[in-house]
Amino acid sequence: MKEIKTIGILTSGGDAPGMNAAIRAVTRTAIYNGWRVYGIYRGFEGLINGEFKELTTESVSNTVQRGGTFLKTARSEAFRTPEGRKVAYTNLVKHRVDALIVIGGNGSLAGAQEFAREYDIPVVGLPGTIDNDLYGTDSTIGYDTALNTIVECVDKIRDTATSHERIFFVEVMGRDAGFLAQNSAIAAGAEAAIIPEDKTDIDQLEKFIGHGFRKSKSSSIVIVSENQKEGGVMHYVDRVHKEYPQYDVRVSILGHLQRGGRPSAYDRILASRLGYASIEALQEGQRNIMVGINDDKIVYVPINKAIKMDKPIDRELMNVLGALSI
């Protein structure tokens, strides 16, 4: 295996709080071990366009507390093509980059895996997504911060819901995973969570209205995980209007608000640990793996496994929510 002297690091896909802390950890750990580090701006698009800048310890000063990613991020249609990936590899060779660290979610790691298949370069992924949907890691960078942001917003929404005796449907992110919805519902004391994982055999709206919602309650909060297949929160709001017109319903879609803000202490620590471990992984000769955390211990997960296997929801937590919402 070729000796590593220089690495590249990029952030891709949706931004997540804690990405800067991860960049900082990767950069300083690499420099500590005598390696050079190139920050690649605007993700895979920047890899194709040659947006490389050498990072120093000073480059990442005063970043651990900042949300977003100072390396910027962008979607790249060009990187989906063999021609685009060839240009990207040429730029890595030009800058004598021996290994690549990619911070991002499912799509970003899938792109990294395809790149690693085509070219002989070690790739290590760090799970950076608020959705917490990558298999093999208990938590992803940004998830804890997003969860706390949602809870803060729902606490404020409940003030209005109570004052006006309304049912509020609050849509949160998560794509096809219900981790944010499930856990924010418990933390915020919501009456129900409608998540993709429960869509197969249960009419979740009927379960909530018919069995869970008491007329004695002055207000009610339902957290809905975004799901384009089901139509998202508006699908359920329309149903209430048609099937249960006696209820006064309002909707709040939190949207990109969930991605912003200073990372929580947990996300800063997680990102720092994973960033440090990514350099250790490269030193050990690891390649094409995602660095994750399981039972508070660092684990290496094959990227193929991390992106293809479904991360199971904790069904016991749904029982907790059901019992506490009566």
Radius of gyration: 22 Å
Biggest β-sheet, characterized?
7 strands, mixed
Can you tell me the residue ranges where pLDDT is under 50 for at least 5 consecutive residues? none
**CATH architecture classification of the largest domain:** 3-Layer(aba) Sandwich
- Helix content class: 40-55%
Fold-level CATH name of the largest domain? Rossmann fold
The pLDDT mean sits at 92
Output the helix-strand order: EHEHEHEHEHEHEHEHEHEEHH
Assign an overall shape: elongated
Structural class: alpha/beta
Strand content: 15-25%
Number of strands: 11
Number of domains: 2
CATH class of the largest domain: Alpha Beta
Count of helical regions: 11
Termini separation comes to 60 Å
What do you see in this structure?
This protein is of the alpha/beta class. The chain folds into two domains: 6-142 and 263-308, Rossmann fold (3-Layer(aba) Sandwich); 145-259, 3-Layer(aba) Sandwich (Rossmann fold), CATH 3.40.50. Helices cover 41% and strands 17% of the residues. The protein has eleven helices and eleven strands. It has helices at residues 19-32, 43-49, 82-94, 106-118, 143-164, 179-188, 204-212, 232-243, 265-283, 303-308, 315-324; strands at residues 6-11, 36-40, 52-54, 99-104, 123-127, 167-172, 192-194, 220-225, 249-253, 289-294, 297-302. The strands form two sheets. It has a seven-stranded mixed beta sheet, with helices on both faces. A hairpin with a 2-residue loop joins strand 10 (289-294) and strand 11. Helix 1 runs parallel beside helix 9 (265-283), helix 5 (143-164) packs across helix 6 (179-188) and helix 6 packs parallel to helix 11. It starts with 5 loop residues before the first strand and ends with a helix. The model has no long low-confidence stretch (mean pLDDT 92).
